[in-house]
């Protein structure tokens, strides 16, 4: 189901968890969801097959004018460069603040259906950058955060802050990512660890600016298991599919 704000995939079994996951720059929610759900774990299953009780919420970003390219594009906030995402960073502040306010409201809305510790925040690239700022600024104790091929805007400010949240963090980055280099992910990991957060870091040789497959999907499943999320085992899935 899609509206102008969100693309939502409902659970196929009893609703146990919600994951709010944000697309990257120059993308849209339905396209991102479709491509993500084609990604398979090492047993050839997709994430909706592994987690039939998940409600998947894919927010759509706004169309914002790019100062650098002088055109409107789908983005959560304006930025000058993906190669050097901290360049002219101040131009990103207003857009991040607007997106964070919206995501905070969305988390609170979803918490009417499941508890906060059963809600996960995440995203890829620019979407991940919004999600981590939502986590840090709102200090909502959600079940976990998952960031892929991303960076931490305003990391120099964040490393001097304190946080009371204990949300587990999962970060994954591919060495051959030519959009957001892996060094940006490493810097993000170090900053989050510095302020006291528990960070699981996974680095892969291949995958570009996307999810590593299948190992990266396996690692997502393993992280969610450490957060207390049960997955449907393969034998149960096979039994159901054969009637």
UniProtKB/TrEMBL annotation:
Belongs to the AB hydrolase superfamily. AB hydrolase 2 family. GO terms for molecular function: carboxylic ester hydrolase activity; palmitoyl-(protein) hydrolase activity. Gene3D superfamilies: alpha/beta hydrolase. Keywords: Hydrolase. GO terms for cellular component: cytoplasm. It holds the Pfam family Abhydrolase_2. It comes from the Eukaryota. Coiled coil: none annotated. InterPro entries: AB_hydrolase_fold, LYPA1-2/EST-like, PLipase/COase/thioEstase. The lineage of its organism: Eukaryota, Fungi, Dikarya, Ascomycota, Pezizomycotina. Residues 6-225 form the Phospholipase/carboxylesterase/thioesterase domain. Signal peptide: none annotated. This is Alpha/beta-hydrolase.
């Amino acid at each position: 189901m899609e509206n102008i704000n969100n693309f939502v995939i409902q659970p196929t079994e009893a609703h146990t968890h919600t994951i709010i996951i944000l697309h990257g720059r120059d993308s849209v929610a339905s396209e991102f969801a479709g491509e993500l759900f084609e990604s398979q774990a090492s047993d050839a299953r997709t994430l909706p097959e592994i987690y039939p009780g998940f409600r998947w919420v894919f927010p759509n970003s706004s169309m914002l004018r790019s100062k650098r390219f002088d055109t409107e594009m789908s983005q959560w906030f304006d930025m000058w460069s993906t190669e050097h995402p901290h360049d002219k960073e101040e131009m990103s502040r207003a857009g991040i603040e607007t997106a964070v306010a919206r995501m905070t409201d969305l988390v609170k809305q979803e918490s009417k259906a499941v508890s906060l510790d059963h809600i996960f925040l995440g995203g890829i690239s620019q979407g991940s950058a919004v999600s981590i700022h939502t986590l840090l600024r709102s200090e909502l104790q959600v079940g976990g955060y998952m960031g892929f091929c991303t960076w931490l805007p305003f990391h120099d400010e964040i490393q001097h802050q304190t946080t009371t949240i204990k949300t587990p963090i999962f970060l994954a980055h591919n060495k051959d990512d030519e959009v957001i280099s892996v060094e940006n992910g490493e810097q993000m990991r170090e900053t989050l660890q510095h302020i006291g957060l528990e960070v699981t870091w996974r680095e892969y040789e291949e995958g570009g600016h996307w999810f590593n497959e299948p190992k990266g999907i396996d690692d997502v499943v393993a992280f969610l298991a450490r957060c207390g999320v049960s997955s449907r085992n393969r034998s149960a899935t096979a039994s159901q599919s054969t009637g």
